[in-house]
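Table S5 (text form). Sequence records supplied for joint modeling of the two-component complex.
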Amino acid sequence: MSNQTITLILSYLRQNRTATRSDLAAALGLHTRTVAHTVKTLLDRGLLIPAGRQQSAAGRRQELFSINSSYRNYIGLDLGATHIIGILVDANCSVLERVAFDIRPGLGVEMIISQLRSVANRLQVSENRTASVGGVGVCVPGFVDPRAGVSIVAENIVGWRNIQLHKILSADTTAPLVIEDSSRTLGVAERWTGSVQRASDFLVIDIGYGVGMAIYAGGELYRGTNYKSGEIGHVTVVPDGTVCTCGKHGCLETVASGKAVAAIARTAVRQGKSPMLMDLVQGNVDSISAADVGVAANTGDALARDLLRSAGGFIGLALANAANLLNPSHIVLGGGMINAGAILLDSVREALSLHTMAEIFNELELSVSELGIDGSALGSAIIAMLDTTSPAD
Amino acid sequence: MSNQTITLILSYLRQNRTATRSDLAAALGLHTRTVAHTVKTLLDRGLLIPAGRQQSAAGRRQELFSINSSYRNYIGLDLGATHIIGILVDANCSVLERVAFDIRPGLGVEMIISQLRSVANRLQVSENRTASVGGVGVCVPGFVDPRAGVSIVAENIVGWRNIQLHKILSADTTAPLVIEDSSRTLGVAERWTGSVQRASDFLVIDIGYGVGMAIYAGGELYRGTNYKSGEIGHVTVVPDGTVCTCGKHGCLETVASGKAVAAIARTAVRQGKSPMLMDLVQGNVDSISAADVGVAANTGDALARDLLRSAGGFIGLALANAANLLNPSHIVLGGGMINAGAILLDSVREALSLHTMAEIFNELELSVSELGIDGSALGSAIIAMLDTTSPAD
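The corresponding C-alpha cell record, covering 786 residues in total, follows.
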C-alpha cells in the first residue's frame, strides 16, 4: 500500500462520493488485491465508512464506501511572499473555514511568524470544526527541509532564512505538522482534485510573485536529492541578464515572475510609457502589481501587453526545455499570474510549441489550474492528511 | 523484489566478487528480508551460486554468494550515427568478444541493418561463448518504443524512421530482445559499474555525434510518459539559432554536439581560420571530425579551442538548467566528445557553476565517465540481463 494508492482512492471517492472495490479497481487501474488491502486499512482507521450496497439487477450486491467526512479535520497553511492563507478542511477536503491576510513586502520575519501562528490558532479553535484536527500542513516558497521541519530560505521574503517552522508551530498544536514547498503542494492539490488525477508524469508550474514547479515522475512527487527540485524560476533564460535574488543572472524570475513584471512596469510607467497604468493606480507607481499590469493589458494598454507577452514567451521557453527533458503527459499552469489573462497564456502556449520537440509537444496536454489562490493551502492540508494516513503510520 | 534491488545486488557482487546476505544488506542499505528474498530467487534461477562460508573468529559463519559467470551470456548492440558496436558478456559483465564497425554518414538504412544483423550473428556463434545467449539488448539514438520494439526515429541517421528492430533481429535469434535509447543504456551502465551505484537521483549526459541524457529519479530510470525523456540535445539554448535536424531552432545539438563542432570547424577551416586543422587532415576538409578538433585544441589551435569552449559553455548551461529542475546528486559526463579534452570539460564545469543555484551546485558531484566508447553497448547487455531476470519473468 503506497501513498499513491491512497491518493488515488481518496481523490476518486471525493469526486464520486461512493464506490465499490470493483469500481475503484476498474476506474483506477489497480489490482483488486491492492484495493481490498488499502480499503480495509482505511476502514480500520475510520477514514472510510460503509455506505450501503450497490443497486444491481442480479448477483451479489457489492458494498459501497465513502470518505468519513467527520473523521478528522486538517489545516493547510500557505505562507507566500505576499499572503498568508489558512484553510480548515474535513476529510473530504471541503473547506470549513478560511483565513487570509495580505503581506506587505518588507514585513519583518517576526511579524510574519506571529501572523502565521495567529492564523493557525484561529483555525484550530474554529467554530466550524467538525472533528479534531488530525494534522497541519504548512507550505512556504524556496527551499525547505521537510525532515527537519525547517524553511531554509525564501529569497522573496526579506531576511527569511533557517526558520524552524516545525518547532515554532508545534508550540501551539499537538497535531502532526508537515512542511513542504508551496509549488509542490500546488502540484499535490492538482493531482488530488482531478485534472491530472490519473497522470503519472506531469508538471505543475506555479507562476506567482516567484516561480516554482512540482514534478511528478512515475506517479510520485519528485523532490530531488535534497528536496530542492523544481526551481524553474531559476533556470537561466537570458544568459547575460540582470541579477536575480538568488545571485545568478538572467533567471526566469527576473523576467517573468509577478515580482519582475511589476518591477519592469513601475520603471516603464515612471518613464511615461503607460499613462493608462499610471491612471489605474492613481499616480501611486510604487503600488503597481502584476495584477494591475493584467488589468491594463486586458484594457488594451500596449506596454502591459508587451510585458505579458514577453513574460509568457520566457515561461513557455523554460517549460519547453523541461518538457524536452521530462516528456510529461500534462503541464498545468497555476499561480496568481495566470489571472493576468489570455495574452500571457497564449504566449506561453506559443513558445511552448515553438521550443518543444514536435513528437513530445503533440502528446502533451496544456491546461490552466482551476484551483485559484487557495491551491497551495489545499495541497498543504492534503499532505497533512496523507502524511498521517501513510503506510508507515 | 524490484529491478532496482537486483541491480544493486548484482553490481555489488560484480565489484566485490563475493558477499553474505548481511554484507549486502549493510552495504546497500536494504532490508534483510528483501536481500534474503532476492538472493533466494537469484539462486533458484542459477544466476547466483554459493561460494563457501565467511571466515570469522566466532559465531556461525554466514554463506557467501557470487555471480555464476557461466549462467548465461548476453549480447549488447549499440547502433550509433557513426558506429555499430557489439559485445558479448557473461553474467559478470566481463566482455568475451567485441565487434565494431565505423559507419560513414549517409550509409543507407538497408546496409546499416544488414551490418547490425551480421554483428549480432557473429556474437551469437562466437567461439568465446561460455554459455547460451540469455538475451540481446539493442540501443539506438533518438526515439524508441521499447514495448513495440521499434526505433521510431534517429534524426542523425538519414532515412531512419519506424524501423521494426525487434522483428528484424528476431529472425536471427531465439533469445529475448530488448530495445532502448542509447543514452539511457549509457546511464544503466554507469549505475551498474559503480560511479553512481548508490545514487537515486542523477543524470548521465551522452555527448557524441548527437546529445542525449539518462535521468534517474527515485532510484529508477525515468523514461517519461511515452519513452521520450532525456532530449537535452534538443533543449533550446539559442532561441533565434540555426535550424536543427529536429526542425526547431537553436537546439543544444546545433552548437555543442560532435556533429555541430565538426560542421562549424569545416566551415571555418575553409575560410582559412585554422591552418593547423587543415594540415591535420591533410587538406581533406570534409573529413574533419570532432575528434580532429579535439586534437587541434590540445595542440594549441585557437579556433579549435574557441569551438570547444563555446560547446562546453552551452552544455554547462543546459546541464545547469536540468540541475535547477531536478536537483541531482551526480552528473556524469559521457559520450565520445568527452575525449576532446580539458578545455571542453572545464567550460562545462564553469558554465554549470555559473547557471546552477549555489545551494544545488554545492551538493552536486560532477564526474567524467570511465566507460569509454563501449558504455552504451554494455548498458544494452545489462538491460537484456535485467529484463530476463525481472520479477515478472
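Note: The two ends of chain B are 12 Å apart (CA to CA).
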